[in-house]
Each structure stands twice: as structure tokens, then as C-alpha cells.
């Protein structure tokens, strides 16, 4: 798993890529926390567009990021979610906490 981050107008976008599983989740959470601590964004976007697989560890990444943003009184958005990660998020009921935006068909 790797990711790229972009900051523009207090909006931190994290472009996730690869697999989010128990091997990578802790590293991802540490890296996201570091970015949030440095930039203190008003909005954090997790872009799942290039995620190829996600297990329940991805739920921990989302909840961890949500808590970090709530501490800043900020907002978390999930975007470009492919089918497989979307099924995991929906099964966990994440849609009740955060709006889920599927990958747009292009």
C-alpha cells in the first residue's frame, strides 16, 4: 500500500493505492495521522480510486481518520470507492457515519 497526499485550501486529499489489509493498516494510519497533525486540514478526503483490495482493516483506517478529523472539528469524505471496498464499508455500516461516494463510471 502506498499513497500520495495533496493539500489545497485546508483540504487534505489522500490518494490511496494498492491493498488495505492487516499488514498495511497500521502504517497507513500512522502516515495519515502525521499528515493531519502537520497540515491540520478542515477537510480530509480519502480517495479509494486505486485501492485494489480492502479487508476489515480498512474500516479501522476510516474510523481512525474520522476520529482525528473530529478532534480538529473537521470533516472526512470518502471518494472514488471501487466495488469491493464499497461492499466492506457498507457491511460495516460506515455509510451511517460518513457519506460514501462510489467510483464514477468513466
Structure, explained:
The protein is of the alpha/beta class and 106 residues long. The protein has one domain: 2-Layer Sandwich (Transcription Regulator spoIIAA), CATH 3.30.750.24. Helices cover 37% and strands 37% of the residues. It is built from 3 helices and 5 strands; from the N terminus they run ββαβαβαβ. It has helices at residues 25-39, 57-71, 83-91; strands at residues 2-8, 11-20, 43-54, 75-81, 100-102. It has a 5-stranded mixed sheet, covered by helices on one side. Helix 2 links the parallel strand 3 and strand 4. Helix 1 runs parallel beside helix 2 (57-71). The radius of gyration is 12 Å and the shape is globular. The mean pLDDT is 94.
| Helix content range | 25-40%
CATH homology group: STAS domain
Corresponding CATH architecture: 2-Layer Sandwich
CATH topology: Transcription Regulator spoIIAA
Strand content: 35-45%
What is the strand tally? Answer: 5
Return the structural class.
alpha/beta
Query: What is the H-and-E element order?
Result: EEHEHEHE
- What number of structural domains do the residues give? 1
What is the count of DSSP helices, taking H or I runs of 4+ residues? 3
What are its keywords?
about 35% helix; 5-stranded mixed β-sheet; 3 helices; alpha/beta; about 110 residues; Transcription Regulator spoIIAA
SSE topology sketch:
Elements: E1 2-8, E2 11-20, H1 25-39, E3 43-54, H2 57-71, E4 75-81, H3 83-91, E5 100-102
Parallel strand pairs: 2-3, 3-4, 4-5
Antiparallel strand pairs: 1-2
Helix pairs in contact: 1-2
